[in-house]
Amino acid sequence: MVSLLHPMPGPPLPRRALLAALSGLFLPRRASAFGDGSRFVPAVAQHGGHWNARLSGLRRIAWELQRRTSVEVVAEARPLALNTRLFDFPFIYFGGEGDFPPLAPAELETLRRYLTYGGFVLADANDGSSGSGFDAAFRREMARLLPASPLQPLPSTHVVFKSFYLLDSAPGRLFTHPQLQAALIGGRAAVLYSQNDLAGAWARDEGGDYAFEVVPGGEAQRELAVRAGINICMYALCLDYKDDAVHLPLILKKRR
Amino acid sequence: MTGADSTARKLVSLSPLPSWALALLVAAVVLGVVLAAAGLRREPSLARRFVLIGLRIVAAAAALFLLLEPGVRTLQVARVKNRVAVLVDRTASMGLPAAPGAGSRSAAVAEALERILPGLKALEDRFSVEVLGFEPALVPVGEEILRTAAAPGTRTDLLGALRALRATDTGGSRKLSGVLLFSDGADNAELQAGVSARASTELAALGFPVSTVQVGESSLLDVALENLKVDDFAFVRNAVAVEVELRVRGFPGRDVPVVLEREGQVLGTKTVHVTGADETTQVSFTFTPDQTGRFVYTLSTPVFPGEAVTENNTRSFVLKVIRDRVRVLLVVGRPSWDERFLRGLLRQDANVDLVSFYILRTSSDDTQTRNPERELSLIPFPMEEIFDAKLSTFDVVIFQNFGHSDPQLSIAQYERKLEQYVANGGALVAIGGDRAFGDGRTSYPILDRALPVDSVGQAASVAPYRLHLTAEGQRHPVTSVLPTGTASLAAWDELPAASGVNLVRAKPGATVLLDHPGLLVDGKPAPVLALWEHGRGRAMALMTDDSWTWAFTVHRNGEPSRLYDRFWGNALRWLVRDPDLTTLQVSADPPSVEPGTPVGAAVTAREADYQPAAGADVTVELSSVRDRRVVGTARATTGADGMAHVSFPPQPVGAYRVRASARSGERALGEAEDALAVRTLGPELTDATVRTDILVALARATGGKAYRLPLQALPDFPLLDPPVVEVGRSRDRPLWDRWEWLGLLGTALGLEWVLRRRFGYV
To answer: Which of A40, B29, B246, B394 would be a feasible disulfide site paired with A73, CB 3.0-4.6 Å?
Structure first.
């Protein structure tokens, strides 16, 4: 059984506050980014499998990003076919439950170009699978997509674990795989892959309640999952900013 | 040439017997004497022993005389007339005064030569006398030359001069009997540190004595800057160290200021308190050049009354200030895709040293933490450090969608610093967004003075539009992303539609490179990209936050595009004044010359599209930095390669600027400038020291004598005697073939026989 080390639960969020905050997103604001293009939009890749199991989770993480950081977001999950429209959205969530059919060659080609020129993919095994289901299908497609950049475990020293919050791991709805996996292109993690169902921890149902139980760590683990999501989004937006020399001494001091 | 003939006689053996046979005979004769002495050892009468041995010795001597056949040889001989060289130092230091207020050292030598002339003439019956100067090459000199012509040598090499002189000693009449050397001893070659043991050995091996005559007083008054140490180039915004030795002779108790200037601008002053009569102090300066280019720096001290040399109170050097890597400060109002792709580009560029600060959280953001200090990786925004202490270390400062009203994030108190940074040569870029150009909650009116645009106070337009490359943009290096204007225009046209623009108006003097095709501000298309020069610096404003699409979205169809990389590469090069991005370039050729050397300048002119400007009219002005006066103007026409070369007459010591302008028909091609230094003549004039120690040691090592001026007459200096050689035939007169010698032998032997019989030995 995997246990959480140093859980850091955030203060409880009253549902009324959540609704007020959500409504605020749609109110006119004096300052706002130029259209959607400059905002963070959690685009969701449409593949042949069960791709839309965590749309509410993506809305939620976008909202958390808006609430907790200075990033401007569009708090809606935007489904996208794997075609040239991808190039309007440098961040794509590629999740699913169970197996999915192989991607078409054109889709692979587009996705490869997308990643090569700076796009970012957050892959998430919503079924928490390992060696079967989504995991097997995704690894199969990664081998076709980036044969020269296989998925590899991401050490806890990677900048993604300090891009906003100081973290040691990235739990999700589950915590069966403490480490994220990554496919690197030129030193940049172009694909991050979680087998812990990150978005499952973020997802809410229509009533505003969390859609899934988080095991084994409960709400503390859920907060860590949100923080991991924030960090991943920040990494997509800021790359290795927190690895700059000006930050390292302070961050190392904080980590002691 | 030889001396007069004379007769010499000498005693020789005329015996035809070989030497070994003569030696045997001599041995036999000696043996006879010894045996005779041995046979008489028991003779009790001492008188008898003396008489008998004496008679035997007389007989032996007579026998030897007859055997060796001595004779007198009469020879006709002559003495060879060897050379004596009077060697005169003809290096530049001999132009210095021999004493405070006196004439030059060369003039003092001329006067001395006049005085010793009778003595030199007196030597001519035995020697051939040559008066040579060394520059360091050996050339004949006379008093007139010494009085009138400046000593041209740039280096005093006493040992080298003596080696050269030794090479002329080919024996016979070219053999040197001695040298009289007139010099101040101010060697700046092998003997600079004194006469070493090795040099002494070499001097002793010359084979002739060198006598020295010291010219000039060693106790002079002088302030000199010597042994300047500085690199030829430096990196902009990096500290440069300059070291120089201040040597002060004859001014004890004085305070001597040393001033470092860059073309009239004082960079620093150090004052040295002198306590001794001859004191050398190391003086160091450190300064940080803030602009790239070539500049003349000058170190100087005041000229004190009575100084022997005033030229060595100033030292100039040319320093080329280059860029190491372009140091970019990126300040980001909030993370965005625009920031992400710009960061990715700058981080990949090996020529860019990126320092970035992002506002990841504002005071209104709720991070959901109980202990933010431990749970967040955020660090305080070090505004004071980067906008005050470190600002000048950056080549380019980029504000990307930055405009916070939060007091903790507002840069209002550093506006003036930033504006001054640009005015003093820095570069500023403002990139648009909802927080920029007045669209945010605050504005920075003082900093805005540095920008080429003014906000119009209207909300940004978010309607999609296609960028329009202006006519200026098609020619300008920043937006010339492809070799021709047409190709660049096509590349910009292929970009995806832009999604927003901050509404601004271009200030007078600004150049708009990209604009909005349909949106008007004050009746003109709304600028999207504008730039200008502010003071000595440059600034650029990009009124959109979706330039990231030029890097990413543009690749959607699979066609590679390098527009984004080239645009930012060009922009950074233009902002930091990369010399390759100017249409006119001039460079002093060479950048540093010595007095008496013509000053040259090479000019390269290009058209606006960076093609060589053939047939352009180039005007080059040479002006003195000290008094800002134009000292020469030259004109030329460029060749097919766009290049021209001009030349100016030699200029006095000092710092100069070369300014070039060019026109192609009615069109100006721009202006450019460079710096050059006419330097003090090498080490000769920087050190007025008279080196008595070297002259004395040199004389001692060669067997000569050391003298000093004034000379009333030619001193009795050591000379090797010329060798004597045989001329004509010899005559032999035998001494042995006389009957007296034979009679003496017979008488001695007979008398000895008679006495031996009488004494009972026979």
So the answer is: A40
